[in-house]
């Protein structure tokens, strides 16, 4: 049950984040939505309102530590009793390792990894005052396997996995559970446009949808699952278990 839960979702302006926001809103949770794209964020908020919820909304650049701290101070001022945080926001810099600049590397790492840490730290400060909570960090199967020209993204997601189990140990005494989800191919665009071969390459025989990640988050933030912490739940249709050979 989520009807008494207040959950903060980063990167809620679209894709998996929007799917998460609507999944929680549909189940009666109070949702706090943040994204750097204010226009996209408002579109998600409108969809949540259609489910009968009135979300708290704030534009936020996760690469800026001061903005993160101000966001959580704003929640404290409003008396928000935060029960869950989903660190979903993330981005990449898809270019040759020979051309990737220090500024580009730093922006990806600061947004994805440092932003996840700072949101978790600030959320934990609120959660420990009200008896605990749950943090879910959205990593990626790219933390476990890669394609070329993904160094910054892969490093950030690998860092998130390590951060997850470290936080699980540190925050456990405050009854705060910390887990990760590593999505595989989750189609956020036109699902009907996918080819049969796209689906068939997955052992599960289909490409993933945002709802697949939402259901995993709902499981990990359910207070009844308080024995699950420090875990990484891979939601990829089995692709990381499939041996790949050239034919």
UniProtKB/TrEMBL annotation:
Signal peptide: none annotated. It holds the Pfam family adh_short_C2. SUPFAM superfamilies: NAD(P)-binding Rossmann-fold domains. InterPro entries: NAD(P)-bd_dom_sf, Sc_DH/Rdtase_CS, SDR_fam. It comes from the Bacteria. PANTHER family: SHORT-CHAIN DEHYDROGENASES/REDUCTASES FAMILY MEMBER (PTHR42760). Belongs to the short-chain dehydrogenases/reductases (SDR) family. This is SDR family oxidoreductase. It comes from Paenibacillus artemisiicola.
């Amino acid at each position: 049950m989520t009807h008494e839960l207040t959950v903060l979702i980063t990167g809620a302006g679209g894709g998996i984040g929007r799917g998460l926001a609507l999944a929680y809103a549909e189940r009666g949770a109070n949702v706090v939505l943040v994204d750097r794209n204010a226009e996209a964020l408002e579109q998600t908020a409108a969809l949540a309102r259609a489910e009968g919820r009135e979300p708290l909304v704030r534009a936020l650049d996760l690469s800026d530590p001061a903005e993160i701290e101000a966001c959580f101070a704003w929640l404290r001022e409003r008396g928000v009793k935060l029960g869950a945080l989903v660190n979903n926001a993330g981005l990449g810099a898809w270019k040759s390792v020979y051309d990737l600049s220090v500024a580009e590397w730093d922006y990806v790492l600061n947004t994805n990894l440092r932003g996840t840490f700072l949101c978790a730290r600030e959320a934990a400060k609120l959660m420990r005052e009200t008896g605990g909570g749950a943090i879910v960090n959205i990593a990626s199967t790219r933390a476990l396997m890669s394609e070329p020209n993904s160094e910054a993204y892969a490093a950030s997601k690998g860092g998130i996995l390590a951060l997850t189990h470290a936080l699980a140990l540190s925050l456990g005494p405050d009854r705060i559970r910390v887990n990760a989800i590593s999505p595989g191919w989750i189609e956020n665009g036109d699902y009907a446009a996918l080819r049969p071969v796209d689906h068939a390459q997955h052992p599960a025989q289909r490409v993933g949808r945002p709802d697949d990640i939402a259901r995993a988050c709902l499981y990990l933030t359910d207070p009844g699952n308080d024995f699950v912490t420090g875990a990484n739940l891979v939601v990829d249709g089995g692709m990381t278990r499939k041996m790949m050979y050239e034919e």
